[in-house]
Design goal:
Layout: H1 21-29, E1 35-36, H2 49-58, H3 61-68, H4 77-88, E2 97-102, H5 104-116, E3 122-127, H6 131-139, E4 143-150, E5 153-154, H7 156-168, E6 173-178, H8 192-205, E7 208-212, H9 231-234, H10 237-240, E8 243-248, E9 260-265, H11 266-280, H12 285-296, H13 300-325, E10 331-332, E11 340-344, H14 351-360, E12 363-364, E13 366-367, E14 380-384, H15 390-413
Parallel strand pairs: 1-12, 3-4, 3-6, 6-7, 7-8
Antiparallel strand pairs: 2-9, 4-5, 8-9, 10-11, 11-14, 13-14
Bound molecules: pyridoxal-5'-phosphate.
Length: 414
Amino acid sequence: MNSTKFTYPFAHSIHFLHSSDIRDLMKYAIRPGFISFAGGMPNNHLFPVDEVEKIYHHLPRSEKEVSFQYGPTKGYPPLIDVLKKYMQSKGIDFTQHELLITTGSLQAIYIVSHLFADPGDTILTENPSFIGSLTLFKSFKSHLHGIPMDSNGICIDALKKTYKRVTRQGEKVKFLYIIPNFHNPAGLIYSRERRRSILDFIREHKLVLLEDDPYNELWFDPADRPLTEPILSMAPKELKRQIIYVGSFSKILGPGFRLGWMVVPKEVFTKAEILKQSLDACSPNLSQVIANAFLREGYLEPYLERIRPEYRLRRDITLRAIEKYFPPEVKYVRPKGGFYVWLELPRGADAQKVLDYALENNVVFVLGKSFDPARRSPTRFRLAYSNVDPQNIEVGIRIIGEGIRKVLSRSKND
Ligand SMILES: Cc1ncc(COP(=O)(O)O)c(C=O)c1O
């Protein structure tokens, strides 16, 4: 009898997977009495529940039946049509691109990684960047280089230097991944000039750009709306085929629908579609039928008009409380939209100690290292104000402010 113990034959790449810090912190977020700035999620009380109820109630029986069935891999045809029109309203044309519906935008990012990145290939990201994408890229055994950002977006000089250094070392850079609008976690929006510099960069190095844009609609001031124009729209004709644009219903309908989409160059589309076929055959048809009616029957714009002031209100309360309770040495960029404020403590201060203090006092947020491909950034942290009740925001920020003052006075005395 063979006496060696059974072990599971895990694939090598599985060792690169680790649980997201945010998911781990969620155990605090759901405890009664906890104030959570941790989850980057829409507000539970702001979902279009009544609209969706009405939509489903009024659907013809035949459409309800379709919604329970499998659908085409590329998406429910009426939704593809209505989404194309929606994208066209943002200046995206479909002469060189096709639209593929995905199961959340995370699946679109997965498809792009799968299509382009062999193990050991390099992906350039911002630092900080969206934790879900970083985890996903790591699962493909990609080399990640996080490029610093300033208040206008990714730093172009640092991007050029990193590109030069890593390609000289023989690394194969497969694509650049950025989040230009109301960045998660940095809270900022790219200036037009920075967007143009990105286009120059991908032109010079013949690089693919993955433009991830789930927060596009969540601007707070109509004057800022033009700033949200997708880079794909701005790109001259000859550069468009280097850009893949990813959108999501998670912030404009609800993440529970698990619906996103990708605008893919035609030469890439069939491969992306076949890959998706092997992943899940099709995205949830029930979600797609409802999302289609939501757009087609004109529910989106009034819904956005209802939620933008709610998120703006939470942003305003957050910033007022930061001004009141945080020492002036704490730096941040004022968000013009979206869900997040990204903060930086003075050099030498440890955000982990602030989090420890906050947790002891029933408040939770996420440390900067979670968003750094190299897991450094000890002085930074993210506050997501989107799913906190307005009356709790000030209480939570007062407690974090106490933690910061304690940590700063200790580091001065050390
Ligand atoms: C920048 C960014 N990209 C993608 C996603 C994933 O969204 P989805 O729910 O569409 O998969 C998120 C979710 O928070 C995000 O912040």
